[in-house]
Amino acid sequence: MDLTPQQLVRRLSRESQARTRATLGKQPTPDAGRAAAHGAYSYADEQLRHLLVLQPEPKAACTEGCSWCCYGGCVAVTVPEAIAIAAQINALEDETVKSGIMDRLQTQSAFVKQHGAAAAWAPRLACPLLDQAAGTCIVYDSRPLKCRAWASLDSEACKRSTQAGGNSDPSIPLDPAQGLVNEAVQMGQVEALAASGLDGSRYELVTAVLTAIQTPEAIERWAAGERIPASLPIPATSPSASARRRMTVPSDQRAKNRAKRDRKRQRK
Ligand code: SF4
Predict the structure, then answer these.
(1) Into how many domains does the chain fold?
(2) Which of 41, 66, 75 should be mutated for ligand 1, with most atoms under 8 A from CB?
(3) Is the dihedral of CA 141, 147, 153, 159 positive or negative?
(4) Sign of torsion, CA 203 136 165 180?
């Protein structure tokens, strides 16, 4: 059966919602929140793999070591995502790396609180979770769905945009499949949190992660249904319009029909 991008978004967010609710259970805990975030990451990866078999083009230009999109941006995370990232940082064995992250989180969090979430990472400022020398994300396994959604088709365009001051230039061509899947899964997570009586707001990454590390009692209260007081909420958005516009989802049957037409054309 063919799915329009809108139908696909609805299906993914519905399934993401159901999975998140099942993982949170009737009496959510911070640990269940962490498990829900990782469940969402696995689900998004699995769906993306499936989608890329049906629609392999266009291919994202992102490669290991390319990190232009980790500068001068602002990432919105759910509380479970912040818990998952905080847990990965807490588990780091290298104390130097860990204290470097904590210093950067604190500096940047102070900046965010002073200037607001929209200006979160100020021009050319790196995400505190980036290993700048290697160009890799230190919390790669727990990186937020928003980061997973931002896959570029043109790394030179990302470079130009970041060097000009920020990475949100609307002319950067983005991979519609990665944007659609990851954003739809995050939407489902937001809906599941609200349906479970939890704070489903999305928060600015830096302040949210710092809150989860420094004030675990705030996370306990979140699991009991309270809001996170110390972070800055960012309004939730639907999957980017450009992703929806450019996304088409061919079914197996449509792909077969196309191959048949191509064969006919070649015979002519
Ligand atoms: S969390 Fe990781 S992937 Fe996302 S902006 Fe920071 S360093 Fe980059």
Answers:
(1) 1
(2) 75
(3) negative
(4) negative
Task: Assess if residue 268 is contained within a domain.
Answer: no
Q: Which has the closest alpha carbon to 10: 144, 176, 183, 175?
A: 183
Give the span between the Cα atoms of 23 and 36, in whole angstroms: 6
Nearest CA to ligand 1 atom 1: 143
Q: What does the pLDDT read at residue 230?
A: 63
Question: Closest ligand 1 atom to the C-alpha of 129?
Answer: 7
Q: Give the residue from 146, 152, 149, 185 showing the smallest Cα distance to 8.
A: 185
Does residue 244 surpass a pLDDT of 50? no
Domain span including residue 228? 11-257
Q: Is 2 within the bounds of a domain? A: no
In a domain, 78, yes or no: yes
Inter-residue contact 22 to 35 (CB < 8 Å): no
Q: At what angle do helices 30-54 and 79-90 cross, to 10 degrees?
A: 100
User: What percent of the chain has a predicted confidence (pLDDT) above 70?
Assistant: 81
Where in the chain does DSSP place strands (E)? 76-77, 130-131, 136-137, 202-204, 233-234
pLDDT of residue 251: 42
Nearest CA to ligand 1 atom 5: 70
